[in-house]
């Protein structure tokens, strides 16, 4: 199996684009090679099979979506409260919008996980770890609310972003920031 980490990352990034644009059914080695602009057969030198490709695409998505530690520390500097939760939710939404392809790829992986138990196990583990870390961070920072507050914010933002990326006109003239403000006001208790 080939070991060039830069080439592997480029192939995984190409696979994310294919996944976001064509769905899981369109994710083939040939499609990844074409998107990456490499000779046919290159990706099969890096991944044993489609399951391994899907698994590593999931890992790559989470690498790309994870903020740098210093960015998160900076975002958490203001005084804990509902306003900070609002700003953090908007910050997360902007970051995910900037990585729209990754986020759409993640939606596709979630759908594919319905049919692939191994992928479902991996996604569950990673998503649970991320959610647990968000809950821990929220509580440790002294933010208003409890673990269920964080879960509800997670559900709301996931749904809002799904709508925003797939059916942007669904909420009429309400923009994403406005919807996020409504969500935070209804879910997060006053400090």
Automatic annotation (TrEMBL):
Keywords tagged on the record: DNA-binding
Chain ranges passing through the membrane: none
Gene3D superfamilies in UniProt: Tetracycline Repressor, domain 2 (1.10.357.10)
PROSITE patterns named in the record: HTH_TETR_2 (PS50977)
Domain of life assignment: Bacteria
Protein name: TetR/AcrR family transcriptional regulator
DNA-binding interval(s): 28-47
Ranges of residues in domain HTH tetR-type: 5-65
């Amino acid at each position: 199996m080939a070991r060039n980490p830069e080439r592997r990352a480029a192939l995984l990034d190409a696979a994310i684009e294919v996944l976001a644009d064509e769905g899981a059914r369109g994710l083939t080695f040939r499609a990844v090679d074409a998107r990456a602009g490499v000779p046919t057969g290159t990706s099969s030198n890096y991944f044993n099979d489609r399951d391994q490709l899907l698994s590593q695409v999931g890992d790559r998505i989470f690498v790309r979506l994870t903020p740098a530690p210093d960015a998160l520390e900076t975002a958490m500097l203001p005084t804990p409260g509902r306003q900070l939760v609002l700003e953090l939710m908007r910050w997360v939404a902007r970051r995910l919008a900037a990585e729209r392809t990754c986020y759409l790829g993640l939606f596709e992986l979630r759908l594919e996980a319905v049919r692939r138990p191994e992928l479902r196990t991996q996604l569950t583990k990673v998503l649970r770890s991320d959610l647990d870390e968000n809950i821990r961070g929220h509580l440790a920072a002294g933010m208003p609310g409890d673990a269920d507050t964080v879960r509800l914010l997670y559900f709301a933002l996931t749904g809002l972003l799904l709508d925003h990326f797939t059916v942007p006109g669904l909420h009429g003239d309400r923009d994403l920031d406005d919807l996020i403000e409504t969500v935070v006001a209804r879910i997060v208790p006053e400090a």
